[in-house]
From TrEMBL:
Residues 1-44 are annotated as: Disordered. It comes from Aerophototrophica crusticola. CDD domains: HTH_XRE. The keyword Transit peptide does not apply. This is Helix-turn-helix domain-containing protein. Residues 24-40 have a biased composition (Acidic residues). The lineage of its organism: Bacteria, Pseudomonadati, Pseudomonadota, Alphaproteobacteria, Rhodospirillales. Residues 1-13 have a biased composition (Basic and acidic residues). One of its GO terms (molecular function) is DNA binding.
Length: 120
């Protein structure tokens, strides 16, 4: 399951904004009571304890921006092409190390190319 950053959550729009804005705190409490799996009650938790996650790079957009095929991207950056395909098709999510590597590739692809042996 994909985790969303705070910024992504802030930017999200409900399908029916008028309906969503019409809910009172009592309505929400009732919905949670009716179905505890609907949403956890976070009212007693300290917001400072929550950790925001930076959004995962859009792997396909990154690869397209670099003008590379999946095979070229995987070879140049030392990645498994099958895993790359899974990321692009959202069948899998990059783990923390892979997400960090993708962020570095987005910032400085030549640095990563040099680090993995200059494969071209």
């Amino acid at each position: 399951m994909r985790l969303f950053s705070r910024e992504e959550v802030r930017q999200a729009r409900p399908a029916d904004p008028a309906k969503a804005s019409g809910f009172t705190d009592d309505d929400i409490d009732r919905m949670i009571a009716d179905d505890p799996d609907e949403a956890p009650d976070l009212s007693t938790l300290d917001a400072a304890g929550f950790v925001g996650m930076s959004p995962l790079p859009d792997v396909e957009a990154l690869r397209d921006r670099l003008g590379l095929t999946q095979e070229e991207f995987a070879r140049q950056f030392g990645l498994n092409v099958h895993l790359l395909r899974d990321w692009e098709q959202h069948r899998a999510e990059p783990d923390t190390a892979a997400a960090t590597l993708l962020k570095v590739i987005a910032e400085d692809p030549d640095l990563v190319r040099r680090a993995v042996g200059g494969r071209r």
